[in-house]
C-alpha cells in the first residue's frame, strides 16, 4: 500500500514552447571577468605588459597555472552528441544546448567554472586525442551523452591518458543517486540493502554503472536485463562489457526475461526505454521498491507502481523522489578538485551517495528518500565527503 500522499506530489508547472525557446536565446552561458579593466593601470596588470610576468613564471614552473589561471577549477563538459537525453544520436551541434545547461548547473550548484565542448567526431581515438591536446586548458572532464558501448572505452582511455578527474555522468551520476535513493528506501523499510534482490532493466551506460555501484555497496543479488533478457553466462551474444557484468551478477543463474526476473524481486530499477506491464510488476515481493527512471516516460507510471510498491521513485520532477544527477555531479567534481584528486574512484562515488542521503536526516520518509535537486545543502556535503575519500584513498596530488 502506498504511503505517499497526493499533497506531496509536486504540482506540474505549465511551460510553453515560447517559454522554452525564449530561455535559450543567446545560449545559457557567459564569461565574466574577475579582474577590473576600468583604468590604464588595471589593463596593464590584467593584460600586457603585466601578464607576461605571469606567463614567464608559469613557463618556469607549470604548477603555478593552478594559482594564476582558472584551469584547476574549470570542468569541460564533453559530448559527441550520440546519446542525448531521449533524443538519441542528434550530433554535436544539436547537443550543445544540453551541454550548456550542464555547465550552468556546475556554476550554480558548485560554483565551478565550466564550458561545453562538443566534438564533431564519434571516433574514440579522435575524442581521446582531442582531450589530451587540450589538457592544459582544463582541470576536469565531465563526459556526457556518449552512446554505449563506446562510452565505456572512451571513459577508460581518457582516465588513463589524463592526470585529472574524469567521469561519465550518464553512468556514474545516475548510479550514485540511485544508490543514495536505495539506501534511503531501505532505511524507511527497515531493511539492509545487502539483502535486497534487485532487478535492473537496461544494460547501457546507466544500467552497467548502477549494477557496479550496487555490487560495490554490498548488494549480493543483482540481475541485469538487456533487450534480449537476463544477462547470464550461458548467453553467447554478449559484448565484452555485458559478458563481464554477467559473470559478476545473477548469482542464482536466472534465465529468461523480465517476467522471470521480476517474480519475487524486492527492487526494480529501470534505466531503459522500455515499458513494464502492470501484471508483471504485480508479481514482485510485497512492499516492493520501484525506481522507474526513464524520462520523460517511466517504465511504469508511478500511479500504477504505487498499487504494488511501498516506495516509488522516478527521474521526473512532478512526482516525489526524483532521482536527478544534479544531486551528485556538482559536488563530486568540486570535492575531487578541492582535494587535488588525480581521478574519481569507486570509494569517492560511494562516499557521495552516503553524503546525499545524510543531508535528509530526520526528513527521510517514503516520499522523500533523497533530497530535492534544489537543496543547497547537497553539493557542499557531497564535496566534503568526496574530498575526504580522495585523501583517504591516496589519489591526491600531494
UniProtKB/TrEMBL annotation:
Task: Identify the residues that the record assigns to the Malic enzyme N-terminal domain, covering every copy.
Answer: 26-159
Q: Which family does it belong to?
A: Belongs to the malic enzymes family.
Residues of the active site: 47 (proton donor), 102 (proton acceptor)
Q: Which GO terms describe its molecular function?
A: malic enzyme activity; metal ion binding; NAD binding; oxidoreductase activity, acting on the CH-OH group of donors, NAD or NADP as acceptor
Cofactor(s) needed: Mg(2+); Mn(2+)
**Cofactor binding, per record:** Divalent metal cations. Prefers magnesium or manganese.
- Keyword entries, A-Z: Metal-binding, Oxidoreductase
Q: Where do the Malic enzyme NAD-binding domain residues begin and end?
A: 171-391
Concerning SMART domains, the annotation shows: malic, Malic_M
Query: What lineage, starting at the top, does this entry show?
Result: Bacteria, Bacillati, Actinomycetota, Actinomycetes, Mycobacteriales
Q: Where does (S)-malate bind?
A: 295, 324
Where does the chain bind a divalent metal cation? 144-145, 170
**Listed CDD domains:** NAD_bind_2_malic_enz (cd05311)
What domain of life is recorded for the organism?
Bacteria
Output this protein's name. Answer: NADP-dependent malic enzyme
Name the Pfam families for this protein: malic, Malic_M
Amino acid at each position: 500500500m502506498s504511503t505517499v500522499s497526493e499533497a506531496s506530489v509536486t504540482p506540474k508547472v505549465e511551460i510553453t514552447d515560447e517559454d522554452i525557446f525564449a530561455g535559450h536565446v543567446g545560449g545559457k552561458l557567459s564569461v565574466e571577468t574577475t579582474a577590473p579593466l576600468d583604468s590604464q593601470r588595471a589593463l596593464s596588470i590584467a593584460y600586457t605588459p603585466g601578464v607576461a610576468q605571469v606567463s614567464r613564471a608559469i613557463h618556469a614552473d607549470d604548477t603555478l597555472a593552478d594559482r594564476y589561471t582558472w584551469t584547476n577549477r574549470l570542468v569541460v563538459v564533453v559530448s559527441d552528441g550520440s546519446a542525448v537525453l531521449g533524443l538519441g544520436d542528434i550530433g554535436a551541434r544539436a547537443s550543445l544546448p544540453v551541454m550548456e545547461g550542464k555547465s550552468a548547473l556546475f556554476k550554480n550548484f558548485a560554483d565551478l567554472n565550466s564550458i561545453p565542448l562538443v566534438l564533431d567526431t564519434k571516433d574514440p581515438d579522435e575524442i581521446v586525442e582531442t582531450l589530451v591536446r587540450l589538457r592544459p586548458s582544463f582541470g576536469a572532464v565531465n563526459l556526457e551523452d556518449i552512446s554505449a558501448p563506446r562510452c565505456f572505452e572512451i571513459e577508460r582511455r581518457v582516465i588513463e591518458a589524463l592526470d585529472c578527474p574524469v567521469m561519465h555522468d550518464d553512468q556514474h551520476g545516475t548510479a550514485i543517486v540511485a544508490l543514495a535513493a536505495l539506501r534511503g528506501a531501505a532505511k524507511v523499510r527497515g531493511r539492509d540493502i545487502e539483502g535486497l534482490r534487485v532487478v535492473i532493466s537496461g544494460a547501457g551506460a546507466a544500467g552497467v554503472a548502477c549494477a557496479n555501484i550496487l555490487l560495490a555497496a554490498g548488494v549480493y543479488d543483482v540481475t541485469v536485463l538487456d533487450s534480449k533478457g537476463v544477462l547470464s553466462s550461458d548467453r553467447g551474444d554478449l559484448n565484452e562489457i555485458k559478458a563481464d557484468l554477467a559473470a559478476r551478477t545473477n548469482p542464482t543463474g536466472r534465465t529468461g526475461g523480465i517476467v522471470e526476473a521480476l517474480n519475487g524481486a524486492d527492487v526494480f530499477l529501470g534505466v531503459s526505454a522500455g515499458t513494464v506491464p502492470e501484471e508483471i510488476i504485480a508479481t514482485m515481493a510485497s512492499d516492493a521498491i520501484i525506481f522507474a527512471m526513464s524520462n520523460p516516460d517511466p517504465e511504469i507510471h508511478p500511479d500504477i507502481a504505487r498499487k504494488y510498491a511501498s516506495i516509488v521513485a522516478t527521474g521526473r520532477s512532478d512526482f516525489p523522489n526524483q532521482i536527478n544527477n544534479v544531486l551528485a555531479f556538482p559536488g563530486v567534481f568540486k570535492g575531487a578538485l578541492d582535494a587535488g584528486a588525480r581521478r574519481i574512484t569507486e570509494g569517492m562515488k560511494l562516499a557521495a551517495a552516503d553524503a546525499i542521503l545524510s543531508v535528509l536526516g530526520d526528513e527521510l520518509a517514503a516520499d522523500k528518500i533523497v533530497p530535492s535537486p534544489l537543496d543547497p545543502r547537497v553539493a557542499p556535503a557531497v564535496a566534503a565527503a568526496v574530498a575526504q575519500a580522495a585523501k583517504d584513498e591516496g589519489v591526491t596530488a600531494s
